[in-house]
Specification:
It comes from Natronosporangium hydrolyticum. The protein is mainly α. The radius of gyration is 18 Å and the shape is globular. The longest helix has 34 residues. α6 runs parallel beside α10. It starts with a helix and ends with a helix.
Length: 245
Amino acid sequence: MPNWLRSYGLLLRWNILRLRTELPLFLIIQTLLSVGVVLGFSFLMPSYDRETALYLTTGAPTVALVTVGMVLAPQMVAQQKLRGMFDYQRAMPVPRMAMLAADATVWMVVAIPGMIAALLVGVARFDLTLSVSPLVLPAALLVALVAVSVGYAVAYLVKPEVVGVITNLILIMTMMFSPVNYPAERLPDWLAAAHQFLPFQYLAQALRDTLDTPAGGLSAVPFLVLAGWAVVGLGVTYRVMTRRA
């Protein structure tokens, strides 16, 4: 464990130094995108009730984490592959999970300002009062873990030339065709059924229910499903990392 923690600390510092010029830009774009989801989507609706306002306000943090974990992170991995940096990292004599944890920490920090800004803007824009659960932080960490692990699994499995296409499709799916910013009942039946097996609606539900606790209490279903997706994402990533080591 001491070696793992030391490796994690050194890799985290190395990641921050390596990305020091890009991180400010990522933070700005991420924050603008998250706030834009709340404000931009609200302009499409001539009127809204509390449910609509709640979905938009809590959906924006989900979009923020998906954008960072499933779009930005895998695209950076793809660039590292093309430049040869990826193989250099994997040749380092460090625990593979420490490498992934250091990367995930950086991306989680990048997502935080956008999440907070979107929540504050949504609460002010719709005059919402939220009933926040103490489990909101573990839920946010679980959502971030799933986003990063699935994003890295995609980046490791496919060729770097097609990572951008796949991640852009994921972003479009999350923002427009997933029950993240609106209820699943508004989707066609076949698409709503497909989302029973995809992580997007559970990512949103975990954040939404812990930011505004339902009267009947929290459901365990989204957390169990997300735990399964995290295991799959981490398992695939670890398998690829160790196979080529």
